Each structure stands twice: as structure tokens, then as C-alpha cells.
Amino acid sequence: MQRSRPMSPNALKRSRVQALAFAAAIYASAWFVLRHGVMLSPRLASFPRWPVLFDLLLTVPAVTWWLFRRDRPRAWRSALSAAGLGVLVSMHLLAGISAAGMRELDAMRTIALMAGAVAELLLMIKLWRFVTAAGPQHNPEYALQRLMERRFGTKALGRAVSFESRLWLHALAPRTWAGWRYCGEQHFSYHRKDGYAANLQGLGVLLLIGLPAQHLLLGLLSTPLAWVTDILTVYTLVFLLGHYRACLRCPISLDGGALYLRHGLGVREQVIALASIAAFESCREKPARHAAGVLSLAGAGTPNVRLRLWQSQAIEGLYGITRPVHTIYLGLDQAPQFLAAMEATRDRMRMKKHCPP
């Protein structure tokens, strides 16, 4: 029996393109036959639904598994994802299916949601074991990042999974954990600025207090709606807890050649070379919301530091989404000390540059 082994980047990319192309072709063919098949033949007006359902739920996942067969864990994950997507597509394409068939699809959708919840629970358990096995002398966030990149890559999906894992890491890790040591020689906090951490606590308390009343009121309208809203609210509470703890643990750091930009869960560690920073200055103005190329890391308060880059740099934000940034606004607890450290570091860099070896 052939042993499973990781696929090369080129083989992985090729298999992904082939799987997406095959699935798109099957979905498009099913849509055309069911919606406009009479244009090809009058017999297709009464085309049976079961062959389409077979292709969406079995053929596409089977072909997807075969394309990733060299890496068995990835093959099973891809096949299950294709099956879940097939259920969603079936709900829209097979609107004319019998009531019994629709009930079966609803049951399959419920099973898919339960499987997602079980996967989230397994991720939490595995993450907890990973954190406890790392030991207090190591920073678990760095180790987790390496693990996620090795298993899921650095593309959009890998970054999203890494963000989700990081969320649960900070939410579940003990408060007394002493291994949160980050790169950099000088560290600057931001959680006290304008009561940012306290505001996160207050928002979490309000959501928690309102959860029972929310469930009772929505339950009068629809029980499934009440439970779905409860799940989303609990996830929001976990997110707030993880972001709150990450803000306390993840400082903005500086060393002799780089600025390590972090901000809770909102920005995972991004390394910015000091040579790429055109200017840094104190400021008291709020940037325009959603301005292109501008990143504000001041919470709900007013920033007190502005950084301008020579050219735009991709910054990874929530759920691994990256965007180009050329101006960064910071809200720091020790803005004067940070600016002084930046100036001193830049002076040392200039001296090293002009001093003969």
C-alpha cells in the first residue's frame, strides 16, 4: 500500500485547479440541464433529479479525492469539502425535488453543520494538547504558526485556518502562561490607550448578560433562529475573549533593524524593515475610515503615532485577509518612548552605514 506523503507546491496547485475546474463544469452542466435543458431536447424537460444529485454528492467528491490521493489527509478534507458544497448547490438547483427529497437534503445540511461543529471541537482539543505540550518556555503562537503553515500552506485558506487556530489559542491558553515572548528588543503596549481593553471587557459582559433574553425573545419567532443566533453570539464572545487576551500579550516591538507590528487578533505579527519607513511622527487626528492604503490600530480611540512607508506593504488582518498599506496609525500607551526609541534606532543605523568597517 502506497504511503501518504505531502504534495509538492506545484502538484498541489495543479490538483486544486483541476478539482475546481471539474466541479465548476459539473455544477454548470447540472444548472443548464435542469434550467434550460429543453433547448437541447424536449425530453430533458422531465430529466430525473437523481443523476444530478449523484454527481453533486458523490462524483465530484470522489474525483476530488482522487486528485489529492497522494496526500491522504488532504484528500479526505477536500472530498468532504466538495460534498458539503454539493449539498448547498443541491438545495438551490433541485428546488423542484419532492418533499421527501428536500427533507433528506435538509437532514444532510444539518449533518454538515454538526460535522463543522465537531471539527471545531476537535480543533480546540488538538490546540489545547498542542499548547500544553509546548511547555511554558516556548511561545506557542510561533509554534502554532509553523504548524499551520506546514499543514495548510500560506495561501488564503491556510491564513484563515491559522487565524481561527490563533483565536482559540489566545482564548483557551491559561492566563498564567509565561511563554509569551515575542521577537524584538523593546516592547510597547497599547491595551490601556483610551481604555481599549476595558471596552472589550464591557462589550463581552453586555453580550453575555443579554444572551438569555435574546434566546427567549427569538425563540418566540423561530427556535432554529434562536439557536443559530446563540451560536453566533457565543462565537463572538470567544472572539472578544481571544482578542482581549491577545491585546495584553502581543506588543508592538522594535529591534535594531525591524518593527514588529501586532495588534491583538486584528494583526498577526508583521515584520516591517526600519529602512522601509519613510517617516514616523506624533499625531492627534483620526484617519478617514476605510481609506485606501491606510491602517488604523488605535481601537475606538484617537491614534498618537503615524508611520509612513516608502512603498505599500501587504499587511495580514482578520481571517488572514491581506491588503496593501502605506500609512499606519497606532494608539500606544507609551507614544513618546516609542518615538524616541525609533529615533535612536534610526540614528544607530545611520552611524553603522557611514562608519567604515
Main β sheet profile: 4 strands, antiparallel
Number-wise, the strands total 8
The helicity comes to 55-70%
**Tally of domains:** 2
Give the overall form.
Answer: globular
Order of helices and strands: HHHHHHEHHEEEEEEEH
Strand order of the largest sheet: 1-2-3-4
**Distance N to C terminus:** 60 Å
Mean pLDDT: 82
- Beta content: 5-15%
Separate helix tally = 9
Q: Could you tell me the radius of gyration in angstroms?
A: 25 Å
Instruction: Quickly give the structural class.
Output: alpha+beta
List segments where confidence is low: pLDDT < 50 over at least 5 consecutive residues.
Answer: none
Q: Can you walk me through this structure?
A:
- The longest helix has 36 residues, at 99-134.
- Helix 1 runs antiparallel to helix 2 (50-67), helix 3 runs antiparallel to helix 4 (99-134) and helix 6 crosses helix 8 (223-249).
- A hairpin with a 3-residue loop joins strand 2 and strand 3 (258-263).
- This protein has 357 residues and is of the alpha+beta class.
- Helix content is 58%, strand content 14%.
- It is built from nine helices and eight strands.
- The model has no long low-confidence stretch (mean pLDDT 82).
- The chain folds into two domains: 9-97, no CATH class; 182-357, no CATH class.
- The strands form two sheets. The protein has a four-stranded antiparallel beta sheet, covered by helices on one side.
- The chain has helices at 9-36, 50-67, 72-93, 99-134, 140-152, 156-172, 196-221, 223-249, 335-354; strands spanning 186-188, 252-254, 258-263, 267-273, 277-282, 294-297, 305-316, 322-330.
